[in-house]
């Protein structure tokens, strides 16, 4: 029996949906329990824009690296423009929900929460993003969107302010949709050959982990942990990921891009009694330290990848959002801690929004 069949046997699904007395409910890291910062009356200047039209079509999108060689590192401007246009509604949903949830957690205005629920509810009712007619870019969009939405949802679901208490029916509808998306994501990204497992698989595992906790699905949690271990065991003794080294001039950028989902998964696993920090001789720590060293001096990445590194993405502070969960796992000190403080606060819609508020809530008062 394959791993996929084991995960989705009816008996396991029944246990996941109705709860087993033997296992405690899944929980997020402690920072997700933070309440609303300040309850404000009225709607202020907030205006709820109409939700983007639910995307129910085939998930067949052009790649921004269309026409590139095996390295998939040369941007195709025309295909990127076509990709952005065809996925605009999905990205608008991701960013919009993340922004509204963030605003609500700061201001507590009911209209902000109502709008986020309206957007998500309209897509859930349409069973959006569920097409099984997809290419690689299409299934990538599905898992990115799921990670963004479930990551934001966790802030509402677990907040001590209990914002979803008065919206149970809508919340149940949305969470069932998240679960369906996560099940499809597992099908999309399972049983790949090792040479095909790279940052995309890590991001898929993060989206499934976030959804597992949001919906209390132990089967999804276990799959995300399994995929994390595959990723951690790809890190070699020098801290390189062989399948990201293949990206030539973008090798360092893609090592950095692999870190947010891996760090988030390890953090969520730790919150549920599964300590992944030492997997493959502390692979996640080694990977992070290697990237930080590479940003200071990319010569090692140039030597390994065979080309001078493109540092464009690495000049953007938000690209280092992984430092929040990573430093919570490995207790950063010295230059690394100083670098993190200089770049805070970190906000990444693909990780559900303001990760600094989750992992280092006192940071803003320090600055």
UniProtKB/TrEMBL annotation:
- Where does this protein have coiled-coil stretches? none
Q: What are the GO cellular component annotations?
A: periplasmic space
Entry keyword Membrane: no
Q: Which residues bind substrate?
A: 63-64, 136-137, 254
The record's annotation in SUPFAM superfamilies points to: Chondroitin AC/alginate lyase
Enzyme Commission number, as recorded: 4.2.2.3
Q: Which reaction does it catalyse?
A: Eliminative cleavage of alginate to give oligosaccharides with 4-deoxy-alpha-L-erythro-hex-4-enuronosyl groups at their non-reducing ends and beta-D-mannuronate at their reducing end
User: Residues in domain Alginate lyase?
Assistant: 60-301
Which GO terms are recorded in the biological process aspect for this UniProt protein? alginic acid catabolic process
Single GO MF annotation: poly(beta-D-mannuronate) lyase activity
Q: Which UniProt keywords apply?
A: Lyase, Periplasm, Signal
Q: Which Gene3D superfamilies match?
A: Chondroitin AC/alginate lyase
According to the record, the signal peptide region is: 1-24
Q: Which family does it belong to?
A: Belongs to the polysaccharide lyase 5 family.
Task performed by this protein: Catalyzes the depolymerization of alginate by cleaving the beta-1,4 glycosidic bond between two adjacent sugar residues via a beta-elimination mechanism.
Q: What's the name of the protein?
A: Alginate lyase
- Designated gene of the protein: algL
């Amino acid at each position: 029996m394959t791993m996929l069949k084991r995960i989705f046997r009816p008996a396991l699904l029944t246990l996941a949906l109705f709860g087993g007395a033997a296992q405690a409910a899944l929980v997020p890291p402690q920072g997700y329990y933070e309440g609303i910062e300040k309850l404000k009356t009225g709607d202020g200047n907030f205006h709820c824009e109409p939700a983007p039209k639910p995307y129910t079509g085939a998930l067949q999108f052009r790649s921004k690296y269309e026409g590139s060689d095996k390295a998939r590192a040369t941007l195709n401007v025309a295909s990127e423009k076509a990709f952005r246009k065809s996925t605009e509604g999905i990205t608008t949903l991701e960013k919009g929900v993340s922004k509204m949830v963030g605003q609500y957690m700061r201001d507590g205005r009911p209209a902000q929460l109502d709008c986020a629920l309206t957007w998500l509810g309209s897509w859930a009712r349409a069973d959006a993003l569920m097409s099984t007619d997809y290419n690689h870019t299409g299934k990538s969009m599905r898992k990115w969107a799921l990670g963004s939405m479930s990551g934001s949802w966790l802030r509402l679901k677990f907040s001590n302010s209990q914002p979803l208490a008065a919206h149970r029916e809508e919340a149940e509808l949305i969470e069932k949709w998240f679960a369906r998306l996560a099940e499809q994501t597992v099908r999309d990204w399972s049983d790949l050959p090792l040479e095909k497992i790279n940052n995309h698989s890590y991001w898929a595992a993060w989206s499934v982990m976030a959804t597992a906790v949001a919906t209390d699905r132990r089967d999804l949690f276990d799959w995300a942990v399994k995929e994390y271990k595959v990723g951690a065991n790809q890190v070699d003794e020098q801290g390189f990921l062989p399948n990201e080294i293949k990206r030539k001039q973008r090798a360092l950028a893609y090592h950095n891009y692999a870190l947010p989902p891996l760090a988030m998964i390890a953090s969520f696993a730790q919150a549920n009694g599964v300590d992944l920090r030492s997997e493959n001789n502390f692979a996640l720590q080694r990977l992070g330290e290697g990237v930080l060293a590479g940003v200071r001096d990319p010569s090692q990445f140039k030597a390994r990848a065979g080309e001078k590194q493109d540092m464009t993405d690495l000049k953007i502070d938000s690209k280092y959002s992984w430092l929040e969960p990573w430093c919570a796992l490995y207790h950063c000190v010295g230059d690394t801690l100083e670098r993190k403080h200089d770049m805070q606060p970190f906000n990444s819609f693909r990780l559900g929004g303001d990760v600094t508020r989750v992992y280092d809530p006192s940071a803003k008062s320090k600055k």
